[in-house]
Amino acid sequence: MTTGGKSFPKTGSTGDGFEIAADLGHKIIEPRPALAPVIIKNYKFKMLSGISLRNKEISLFRDNNLLKSWSGDLLLTHRGLSGPGIINYSRYIRSGDIIKVKLLNYNKNELENNLIKKIEREGKLNLLNLLIKYPLAQRLIEKILEIAKIDGSINAAHLNKKERKEIIEHFSSLEFKVKKLAGFHQSMVTKGGIDLKEINPQNMESRIINNFFAAGEVLDIDGDTGGYNLQAAFSTAYLAGIEISERLKR
Description:
Blueprint: H1 16-23, E1 28-34, E2 38-40, E3 52-62, E4 65-76, E5 80-82, H2 84-87, E6 98-102, H3 108-122, H4 127-131, H5 138-147, H6 161-172, E7 174-181, E8 189-194, H7 228-249
Antiparallel strand pairs: 1-8, 2-5, 2-7, 3-4, 3-6, 4-5, 6-7
């Protein structure tokens, strides 16, 4: 069985294999979109679609608990977040989770000290012109100031402590609340499928049904971007094909 998962259903990959395998007695790990963009609740960056953020520290929180932290590239879209640093970890992301992005390579104390020194040296500049000295897109900085309700045209020296804290908070931990993952029509692969415990990894034969083989995305296998999922499909199909060929010769 090489029916694929549920991703890109226009290609005919509608998840039929999961139903067939389940009817035959196999356990199916719940299929979910993987390698998918993330749609953000109350998203405020629609007009910044296309801005990329390179090698940023990203943290995932659920119920106020840190689940994972990693670094990667991400992309602001018209509905939320994408890019390798997001889609490679989308398998872990759930509705209601909080994603925090560290925009600059400073912790909060370091950033505050750095910003204070900039203001001491260049306080006559207006605030926006001071902040664009940081390696961030000007449109992103303008949007953050808008969200924080801070006037970017004021002299930087006139920035009060509360406003400074707001800027530091956004720059060091820009927060997004997950509405949902993009659906199977946008996900590159399917997470879930036939439980691997029920498949012999030597030849991809079912452990519960003789002469039933499964390969590719119908199995509970999913990897990062970069060809890993294609390789998994090719390799599992090769193992199954070799075994079937040998049996036909007997």
